[in-house]
Amino acid sequence: MREELAGFTIGVTADRRRDELAALLQRRGARVVLAPALRIVPLADDTDLREATRACLDHPPDVLLANTGIGMRGWLEAAEGWGLAGPLRDVLSRSYVVARGPKATGAVRAAGLRVHWSPASESCDEVIDHLVRRGAAGRVIAMQLHGGRQPECTEALEAAGAGVIEVPVYRWAPPVDPAPLHRLIDLVAGRMVDAVTFTSAPAAEALLRAAGDRTETVLAALRGDVLAGCVGTVTAEPLVRLGVPVSAPSRARLGALVRTIVDELPRRTVTVAAGGHLLTLRGHAAVVDGQLRPLAPAPMAVLRALAASPGTVLSRTALLRTLPRGADEHAVEMAVARLRVGLHAPRVVQTVVKRGYRLRVD
Fold this sequence. Notes:
Radius of gyration: 25 Å
Number of domains: 3
Low-confidence stretches: none
Helix content: 40-55%
CATH class of the largest domain: Alpha Beta
Number of helices: 15
Strand content: 15-25%
Distance between the termini: 24 Å
Strand order of the largest sheet: 2-1-9-10-11
Mean pLDDT: 92
Shape: elongated
């Protein structure tokens, strides 16, 4: 098959660039579930942003810490609206500029400023270590915030003797319609998606917050059957702290994230020979002798259970546990019938009289 992600279902939690990421995944055959975990609210007219800008003009910063590309662009655009863009650029051009990642680097350079240093890991800890080693005592540091306050960074710099000007350019807010996010949480908890993508650390935290009393169920899925794909190491931090294995590209780019998922998901599939056919199980489909066969959730659940123990007879009661609550043994028979039709290979699943079903393994 040319479409590497055909048969897989992938959740997208991004807001601002969700269409771009979805298109990249769909182009490779994936089924995409759009579920923004957060939205960005610009603060161009915010009093705090204006006051922070004035503070930078009154006390020119020795260091500028640019955390995000969208934040730096938004700050300069807001300053333009207040007639302060020229003076602000002049002040920042004399600062030692640290850009935390390629997007922030691009925004800084687009503003005509020079980037002096950027951390390899894009982590806050590496930035703090660098600034402290360079000498932070007595210096003024303008820190463009990443959505919300970063008290651990501010406190570490202040403990080293620096004066910190926090620059809030935007804030994170819950999605206008939370229904898609809760739907995605249902799918993750039920292991009905193969991967979930994250493009910011706050989005990962927001999904777990929204899970409420199902947080541990969601974490268990992400630690096992559901791949957590993060655009970079900074995005991955909240999940890594909770013991979730994360796949992230070495370069924080959407295209690189998609390539990482293309490499990883097919390696997690189950392949079995049965009834004279070669079956590979994907998220919502089976590949039978190279042909993609999409399946409904119930037949797919039965196939997964049978493939987990190839050749072993599973009773109707055992298979019933794989189906949604409220199903009965007749639903198992229906799921098996639909599975045989959907696979276009009726000999794959064998009925063992008075005992149940098994895969007719070769």
